[in-house]
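Quick board copy: two proteins, each given as sequence then tokens.
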Amino acid sequence: MTKSKFALLILLPLVLLQGCATAVITGAATGASLAHDRRTTGSVIDDQGIEFKAASAIYSNKAIYNQSHINVTSYNGTVLLTGEALTEQLKQQIHDLVRALPKVRTIHNELIIAAPSAIPSRSSDAWITSKVKAKIAAEKGLDPFFVKVVTEHGIAYLMGIVTRAEAQKSVQIVSNSAGVQRVVKIFEYID
């Protein structure tokens, strides 16, 4: 077992703790992920900034916020929008809002036209993501820090900077995971 997988397995149970320990563990996990991330530290910071600014802009726009459920995930300047918007016009407004943010290179707008999802649906997606990440972490020869998993409505979106072999292995693992209806690859390839 590689050091990164061992660290992940050790930190995973601790993340479930509450209070001050969470802040310490999150900092340690962020440090561990930066050590293995193929993005530059600047890109990681830019991605966090994109996600924060997008969430703030969406929250500030009450018309959008009250009629949608939006998840914004940024990886190396590639932004994935998932969730629900009530209308096609609202979906486009959200796209345009995020597109205007600095450092956004491209957007994958996977919002569906529907009422905002209920908590049980979101919990199911979170559970699928957790299971998939654990399976990736357990896979020999595949670093779990190279693949970001986002699940929405049973669709698993895979992001990262990977080799084609890592992408293929990741897709195989995720495709064979319970609850995953479809896999969408949003990878950048290094080979």
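And the next:
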Amino acid sequence: MKLSLVVPCYNEAENVAAFQEAVISAFQGCGYDYEIVFIDDGSKDATLHNLKKLYAAQACPVKVVSFSRNFGKEAGIYAGIEHATGEYISLIDADLQQRPEIVREMVSILDEKPEIDIVAAYQDRRNEGKVLSFFKKGFYRIINRLSEVTLHPDASDFRTFRRSVGESILKMGEYHRFSKGIFSWVGYNTHYIPYTACQRLAGTTKWSFKKLMNYAIEGIIGFSTRPLRIATYLGGLTAIAAMIYLIVVVLQKLLVGIDVPGYATIIVLILLLGSMQLICIGIIGEYVGKTFEQSKNRQIYIAKEILDNNKSASE
């Protein structure tokens, strides 16, 4: 098998059949074998039902991995790589915002340039609001300053890579996954190409602002320990300021005499110091919580059903 297209799906019932048709059209006459590995991430609609139809028809080689519940796109990516058999593996969404024709271009680049291991696509222009765009740019600036690895701005999970890259990713068994950071951490020679995202064929995006914020926090916590150092610096600066203020108060009392500090001053200092302490405790709590969940060594996903013609029922 030359190419495996890994397609995580969550409530994409209206898109999966059209996606397969687009893939077949894009790869017509390509001269090599390919397969589509659909991951049903605990969808609540008819996604699994429609995927079973595609599997039964086998208009092109299709595999289906159905999760026991919604584990998230990151788990879907991991499962897809695990079940892919292609020499090249491509990550692509089912909503056709990312076109299969670009995947074929990625494959050509990998064929022509053996020194390149990953071809990743980034959006040359985004059709989104200014507020969301501002926060995304801010996220990349922050994480690239805090993290030891560098993330390419506007680069998504839409990429094609060699099997050796996939094997390296599978060895990273962390429960809380951040694929953009993982691809940067494993290294390999990456070539970036621009693309313009199309409109969704059907349905709505599953990424709300809240989910994007949580995803950003996952990335920062997962690939940098500098927030812990920031908490240490805040604590140190606060302690130094408190000591200086203590010395000033004692000298004033001994030399010139002062009245008891006013109510407003005390309240302001309590609120300031208390808020700094809570921020530091919150930062530490994020790391402790992630460590606690990772220490349980739970599965990244649970496959309720696997449809694969190449495997027996027992497997």
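Board note added afterward: Residues 263-295 form the longest helix (33 residues).
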